[in-house]
């Protein structure tokens, strides 16, 4: 008896706690549902998955593939590189992401998945690191898990994730900041998020955090640093050395990432498409809450129309 042949995704783990490479797949809108299901399962298990040799992908193919994982969403404030969903990460336009962060946590329903495609890669450096925030929570000593379970934090985009290089002209910096914070968002999230698909608990922090609710600035900073240092432990991380044509997909609900800024003035260009997520809930079932703005942007990012901004 013969069976229909199809390409079988081959999943090879990279780190002990995070990261896997998937071979035998040509990404795009035509991918078979079985392959999509296997990619999704690997993504939930390993938090970030990598694909080599996807040079055939253009903006349209990238977005068509994203649609197989959910609904693509544009960045809430930064205009898209292609006028639709794709965000340009372009070293020559000053985009740097050399801060540990989870994408877009300044809105309630921040993206579930981010899909990053390497277009131009420098001759050295420019790696990206990811950290597994569920593993970070699971490996906390019990008293710290109990402490984190009861905390909530305010996230805001008034602090910029893709900070310009320190040597950037002040005018360029001011202009970028103006775009990034054209709408100023403040959202309260639980510090521990219960994952809507896996049920795992993870630490929800990163560089959009302004402060922990109910604490002074000093206590808040000390606690954020304490939990963030557990997230960044090398055991919880994986590091990817890009080649042009690579694609990385991460579960943005269970990771943070960091783009290493060490390739001098060499060109480095990537494109990111994000897929919409849902409103986080903490261990007590209490959902995240929009604090501001008062007007509902489009798309709504989980901000209910007529939302109270109290
Ligand atoms: O430049 C990088 O390596 C990471 C960029 C980033 O943070 C993102 O695509 O969300
Ligand atoms: Fe990012």
UniProtKB/TrEMBL annotation:
<feature type="domain" description="TauD/TfdA-like">
    <location>
        <begin position="13"/>
        <end position="274"/>
    </location>
</feature>
<dbReference type="GO" id="GO:0005737">
    <property type="term" value="C:cytoplasm"/>
</dbReference>
<keyword id="KW-0479">Metal-binding</keyword>
<dbReference type="Pfam" id="PF02668">
    <property type="entry name" value="TauD"/>
</dbReference>
<dbReference type="GO" id="GO:0016706">
    <property type="term" value="F:2-oxoglutarate-dependent dioxygenase activity"/>
</dbReference>
<protein>
    <recommendedName>
        <fullName>Alpha-ketoglutarate-dependent sulfate ester dioxygenase</fullName>
        <ecNumber>1.14.11.77</ecNumber>
    </recommendedName>
</protein>
<keyword id="KW-0223">Dioxygenase</keyword>
<dbReference type="InterPro" id="IPR042098">
    <property type="entry name" value="TauD-like_sf"/>
</dbReference>
<comment type="similarity">
    <text>Belongs to the TfdA dioxygenase family.</text>
</comment>
<keyword id="KW-0408">Iron</keyword>
<keyword id="KW-0560">Oxidoreductase</keyword>
<dbReference type="InterPro" id="IPR003819">
    <property type="entry name" value="TauD/TfdA-like"/>
</dbReference>
<dbReference type="InterPro" id="IPR051323">
    <property type="entry name" value="AtsK-like"/>
</dbReference>
<dbReference type="GO" id="GO:0046872">
    <property type="term" value="F:metal ion binding"/>
</dbReference>
<feature type="compositionally biased region" description="Low complexity">
    <location>
        <begin position="276"/>
        <end position="287"/>
    </location>
</feature>
<feature type="region of interest" description="Disordered">
    <location>
        <begin position="276"/>
        <end position="310"/>
    </location>
</feature>
């Amino acid at each position: 008896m013969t069976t229909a042949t199809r390409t079988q995704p081959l999943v090879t783990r990279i780190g002990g706690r995070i990261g896997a490479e998937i071979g035998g797949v040509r990404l795009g809108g035509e991918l078979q549902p079985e392959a999509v299901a296997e990619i999704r399962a690997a993504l939930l298990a390993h938090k970030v998955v990598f694909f080599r040799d996807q040079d055939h992908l253009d903006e349209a193919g990238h977005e068509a593939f994203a649609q197989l994982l959910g609904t693509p969403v544009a960045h809430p404030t930064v205009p898209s590189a292609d006028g639709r969903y794709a965000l340009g990460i372009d070293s020559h336009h000053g985009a740097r992401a050399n801060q540990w962060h989870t994408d877009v946590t300044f809105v309630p329903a921040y993206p579930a998945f981010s899909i990053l495609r390497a277009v131009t890669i420098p001759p050295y450096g420019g790696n990206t690191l990811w950290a597994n925030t569920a593993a970070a929570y699971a490996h906390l000593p019990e008293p710290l898990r109990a402490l984190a379970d009861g905390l909530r934090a305010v996230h805001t985009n008034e602090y910029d994730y893709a900070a310009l290089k320190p040597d950037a002209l002040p005018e360029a910096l001011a202009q970028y900041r103006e775009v990034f914070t054209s709408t100023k968002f403040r959202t309260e999230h639980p510090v521990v998020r219960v994952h809507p698909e896996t049920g795992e608990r993870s630490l929800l922090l990163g560089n959009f955090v302004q402060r922990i609710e109910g604490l002074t600035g000093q206590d808040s900073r000390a606690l954020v640093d304490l939990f963030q240092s557990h997230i960044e432990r090398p055991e919880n991380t994986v590091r990817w050395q890009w080649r042009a044509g690579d694609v990385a997909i991460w579960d943005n609900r269970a990771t943070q990432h960091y783009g290493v800024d060490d390739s001098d003035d060499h060109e480095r260009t990537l494109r990111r498409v994000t897929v919409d997520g849902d409103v986080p809930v903490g261990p007590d079932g209490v959902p995240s809450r929009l604090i501001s703005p008062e007007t509902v942007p489009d798309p709504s990012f989980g901000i209910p129309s007529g939302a109270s901004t109290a």
